[in-house]
Amino acid sequence: MAYYTRCAYLFDKDFECSVGIDGEVFIKGVTTTGEKTVCKNSQVFKMQTQNLCPPGHFSISFQLPGPVKCQEVTLSFETDGILEAIVQKKLP
């Protein structure tokens, strides 16, 4: 039995994800979203965005419904900007 969660991510580098035995998932990293100009693959893009966090360090956490086996975590970073996590439940 496992918990399965997906979340959109905005980080580009220095990413860390940890899961505590109590089921708390903690994500931190550095994002460049929110910048006015983005350079990628020798191209320059002028960004027109709203409601994005400013560039820099960020962190977020959320609670899974119950205790987990924090050593048994599978993380997958999809190319569409989705972080998938499978965390094994700790059974009584």
TrEMBL record:
This is SHSP domain-containing protein. InterPro entries: HSP20-like_chaperone, IDM2/3-like. GO terms for cellular component: nucleus. CDD domains: ACD_sHsps-like. It comes from the Eukaryota.
